[in-house]
Amino acid sequence: MQVAYHLLPAVIEAGTRIFVYSGMNDTILPYEGSLAWVSLIPSSQLSAFRQPPVTIPPPAKPSETTFRGIVHNPGGDVTLYGFPDAGHMAQVDQPTVVWKILENAVKGENWNPLERCW
Fold first, then answer.
1. Can you tell me the distance from the alpha carbon of 90 to that of 6, in angstroms, rounded to the nearest whole number?
2. Domain containing 14 — which CATH number?
C-alpha cells in the first residue's frame, strides 16, 4: 500500500475542496491518524488548516442536526471534522450532520459550522 496524500496538492490547486470526517472514538482509523495524514499534504492551501482547531461545545438543547466537535479550517478548502460521540461509522452515529456536510460538499460548498446551522 502506498500513501496518496502527495497526490492531493494538484487536486486542491485545481479548486476541489476536500473534507475529511472522523469519529473520535474510532479505533480502526483514529481521528489522530486522519489529522496526521491531512497535515502532511504539501500545499500552500493548508496554512490555515495548520492553525489551532475550533472546538464547538454541545448546545444547551442537544439536537441531531447540531454539530459539536472539533473542526480544522472551517469553511476552507481542506477541512477536518472530528465527531466526539462517533466511532468508525460516524455517518451512522451522527447521520443527519454527516448527511448535511455531504450534501453541501456535492454542491461545491464546504460547510462552516461557525457560520450557519440547519
1. 26
2. 3.40.50.11320
